[in-house]
Design brief:
Blueprint: E1 10-14, H1 19-30, E2 34-39, H2 42-56, E3 60-64, H3 70-84, E4 89-92, H4 124-152, E5 156-160, H5 173-193, E6 199-205, H6 211-217, H7 226-234, H8 247-254, E7 265-268
Parallel strand pairs: 1-2, 1-4, 2-3, 4-5, 5-6, 6-7
Helix pairs in contact: 1-2, 1-8, 3-4, 4-5
Bound molecules: nicotinamide-adenine-dinucleotide.
Nicotinamide-adenine-dinucleotide binds next to helix 1, helix 4 and helix 6.
C-alpha cells in the first residue's frame, strides 16, 4: 500500500466534520490511520467518527472542540490522549469565510456616493471573527497539540490555506488576510520545528463547490454566478475540484514520502494560481 508508514498512526483533524474534513477523514481512514474529529459541532463529529470506524475498521472519535478557545482545545487534547494514547499528525482544517465578513460589491464606482455593501460598512466584529477563525484557529491547536508530536520527534502538521493567500479575491478581505497569515505561519512554524523532526506544510485548495462557497457561487435560481463563471474561465482545467482530490496530496505531505519537504504550501487548484488570465 502507498503511504504504508501512516498505517495505525493517529491524526487529529480540526473542523473535521466539515465538507473537506469529511472527505480527508475517509481518505486517511481508508489508508489505515486512526482519526480524531475535533469540531465545534460535536454531534456531527461523533456521527462521522462512528461512520469511519464502521466503514474502515480503524479507531475513531468525535471530540467537541472550539479552536478559538484554549481551554476547549486542552480538554479535547486530554480526551484524545486518553482515547488514542498519542498523536502523530495534526490537520488544521477549521476555517472559512462568512457572508457577514464579505462585501456585497466587488468595486466602488468612482461616481457613486453610496457606500452600501462596501468595505466601509463591514462590521468590525465579523472581520475579526473571520481573521481569528483562520489564523488563531490554526495557531492555538498547533500550540496545544503540537507538543504531542514534538515529544515523539516525528510527525507533521498540515494547515489549510487558500488561493486567497496568493492574491486576494474580491469581496472577502478578512478571509484573504487570514489565509495569507496561515501560509506565512506555516513557513514560520516549519523553520521553528525543523530540528525536532516535525514537519509543517499546507495545502491551498482551489475552488471546490462546498457549502461555504455556495452563497457566492450560485444565484437565487441555482445558476452559476458571473463570479464563478469567471473562476472557471481562470481555472486552466475548466472545472471545479472534487474534495477527494485533496486526499492524496494530504497523504503525501503527512507521510515519510515527503520527508525532505517542510514549509511548503501546495496549491491543489487545477492551475488557477499559475494562470495570469492570458
Ligand atoms: N471549500 C473550498 O473550496 C475551500 C477552498 C480553500 C480552502 N478551504 C478551507 O478548507 C477548510 C475546510 O473548508 P470546508 O469547505 O470543508 O468548510 P466547512 O464549513 O464545510 O467545514 C468547516 C468545519 O469547521 C467547523 N468549525 C467552525 N468553526 C469552528 C471552531 N471555532 N472550532 C472548531 N471547529 C469549527 C465547522 O463546524 C465545520 O464542521 C477551511 O479552512 C476552508 O477555509 C476551503
Amino acid at each position: 500500500m502507498a503511504f504504508e508508514d501512516l498505517k495505525n498512526k493517529t491524526v487529529a483533524i480540526t473542523g473535521g466534520a466539515g465538507v473537506i474534513g469529511h472527505s480527508l477523514a475517509h481518505g486517511l481512514a481508508e489508508n489505515g490511520m486512526n482519526v480524531a474529529i475535533l469540531d465545534l459541532d460535536a454531534d456531527k463529529a461523533e456521527a462521522l467518527a462512528k461512520e469511519l470506524s464502521q466503514q474502515h475498521g480503524i479507531n475513531s472519535a468525535g471530540i467537541a472542540c472550539d479552536v478559538l478557545d484554549k481551554a476547549s482545545i486542552e480538554a479535547a487534547r486530554d480526551v484524545l490522549v486518553d482515547t488514542f494514547g498519542q498523536l502523530d499528525f495534526l490537520i488544521n482544517g477549521a476555517g472559512g469565510n462568512s457572508p457577514e465578513a464579505s462585501t456585497e460589491v466587488e468595486q466602488i464606482k468612482a461616481d457613486s456616493p453610496d457606500l452600501k455593501g462596501s468595505f466601509f460598512e463591514l462590521p468590525e466584529e465579523q472581520f475579526r471573527r473571520t481573521l481569528d477563525l483562520n489564523l488563531m484557529g490554526t495557531v492555538l491547536p498547533s500550540q496545544i497539540l503540537g507538543p504531542l508530536l514534538v515529544k515523539q520527534s516525528r510527525g507533521a502538521i498540515l494547515n489549510i490555506s487558500s488561493m486567497n493567500a496568493y492574491r486576494p479575491l474580491t469581496k472577502i478581505p478578512a478571509y484573504s488576510a487570514g489565509k495569507c497569515a496561515v501560509s506565512n505561519f506555516t513557513e514560520w512554524l516549519a523553520v521553528h520545528l525543523a530540528e525536532t523532526g516535525v514537519r509543517v506544510n499546507a495545502i491551498a485548495p482551489g475552488f471546490f463547490l462546498t457549502e461555504q462557497l455556495k452563497f457566492l457561487a450560485f444565484d437565487d435560481k441555482g445558476e452559476l454566478t458571473d463570479r464563478y463563471r469567471r473562476v472557471l474561465e481562470r481555472t486552466p482545467v475548466h472545472r471545479f475540484g472534487e474534495t477527494h482530490e485533496l486526499i492524496d496530496p494530504t497523504l503525501f505531505l503527512l507521510s515519510n514520502t515527503s520527508a525532505f519537504i517542510t514549509g511548503v504550501i501546495l496549491p491543489v487548484d487545477g492551475g488557477f494560481n499559475a494562470y495570469s488570465g492570458v
